[in-house]
Amino acid sequence: MALDSYERVRPWGAAIERAVASGAMPPWHADPAHGRFANDRSLPPQERESLLLWLRSGLPAGDLRQVHVSAESPPAQDCQLPHALCRPPIASVDSERAGEPPWRIGTPDAILELPEVTVPAEGEVPYHSYMVPSPFDRDVWIEAAETRPGNPAVVHHVIVEVAAPRAAAAGDDPRTVGSLGGYVPGDEPLVMPPGLARLLPAGAQVFFQIHYTPNGEAATDRTRLALRLAKGPPRHEARTGVVSNPFLWIPAGAPEVRAEASWLFPRDAMLLSMRPHLHLRGRSFEFRARYPDGTEEILLRVPRWSFGWQTTYVLAEPKPMPVGTELLCIATWDNSGAGPDNPDPAADVSWGERTSDEMMIGFFDYYFVSPAG
Question: Which helix (H) or strand (E) holds 365?
């Protein structure tokens, strides 16, 4: 539904009331008992009650003098791409499309545009993956990045990472990647705090992985990535770590299956954010810190995982991770059929890229307090 005018909102009043009253909206799945987050979308109790009172009172109109903004994108030409890793042509431009809203990160220094993709009306679409060259001929530091689907109605999520051969510094882990954010509904663009930026080395490539979800009508999409450069080298390089367990086995009908994975901080670091990733049978996800002194702390608990809202939980304040701290991820799955989104409770499930398969990944952003040496 569109929420950009009173006329568009009013017919949905009953549905909005049900969603807000049940806690389904606004979408925020972190347990409030653990952690404070800068992007907390949950409604404070007083705001929630005010909204429900307005809805239950018949949605009385306020001042309707406002600007109506259209979020529709211009039509694009049709073509079909193979569902495989490839190197498609990329255009690097410095302008916006006519009629589109401005980029939320401000004026970009470069915009990478992928070729158009045709999404079928139904069926399971394999992930589209692309490896494309950086538009810059030198090392640059990225302070903001925004991924914009051409057709959000069929784009479930987009992952964007830096793929660059570079000498491993002391403590680097092969699972560490350089994330440029991506796209999931409801999340914000990647904007680095002051003093932090992400390195895009000369000769690097940018990896895109796009998950399309058919919605009953054939559609097209042309995804773009806008980049804004920092003025110079930052105080710290922001990194993205990956905690994963690919050795999953979820038997048919199992009501609860549990798996763990962990990562050890090799140097003093500051934790910036966490992002769980499971598929349709996912039930819960938790990040814990096991400190060198033996104490443990729950950093993030998502007790009711939702595949439709893959949120990055940005800490309100960076969290110190002393050298030797173990970052532990714990996930559970329900394959009993009790969950409404389970595609087939009679199937055994293992790791795979299809939506009907499963994954366990804990992404986390951090930086090392001091250089290696």
Answer: strand 361-368
* CB distance 188 to 39 below 8 Å: yes
**307-356 pLDDT, tens per residue?**
888 899 999 999 999 999 999 999 999 999 888 889 999 999 999 988 89
Cβ-count burial 95-128 (b if 16+ within 10 Å, e if not): ebeeeeeebebeebbbbbbbbbbebeeeeebebb
What distance in Å separates the CA atoms of residue 290 and residue 275, rounded to the nearest whole number?
A: 18
Distance of CA 318 to the CA centre of its chain: 19
The answer to whether 206 and 88 have CB atoms below 8 angstroms apart is no
Neighbours of 177 (CB within 10 A): 18
Write the single-letter amino acid at 141.
Answer: W
Q: Tokens 């004026």 — which residue? A: 107
102 within 8 A of 35, measured Cβ to Cβ: no
Q: CA–CA separation, 167 vs 164, rounded Å?
A: 10
Cα(292)–Cα(84) distance, rounded to whole angstroms?
44
Instruction: Give the integer Cα–Cα distance in Å for 226 and 105.
Output: 8
Cβ atoms of 361 and 351 within 8 Å: the answer is no
Q: Cα(first)–Cα(last) distance of the chain, in Å?
A: 54
Half-sphere exposure of 326 (CA within 13 A, CB side): 12
**Which residue, among 352, 327, 361, 319, has the nearest Cα to 161 in the 3D structure?**
361
Q: In the Cβ-directed half-sphere of 311, how many Cα atoms lie within 13 Å? A: 23
Q: How many CB atoms lie within 10 A of CB 281?
A: 27
Tokens 């409404």 sit at which residue? 340
Q: Cβ(120)–Cβ(219) under 8 Å? A: no
Instruction: Give the DSSP H/E element, type plus range, for residue 17.
Output: helix 13-22
Residue 53 neighbours by CB under 8 Å, 6+ apart:
none
Residue-wise pLDDT for 127-149, tens only, equals 899 988 999 999 999 999 999 99
* Cα 113 to chain centroid, rounded: 19
Matching residue, tokens 């049978």 = 281
Looking at residue 251, its amino acid is: P
Amino acid (1-letter code) at residue 222: R
Closest CA to 274 of 237, 243, 308, 235: 243
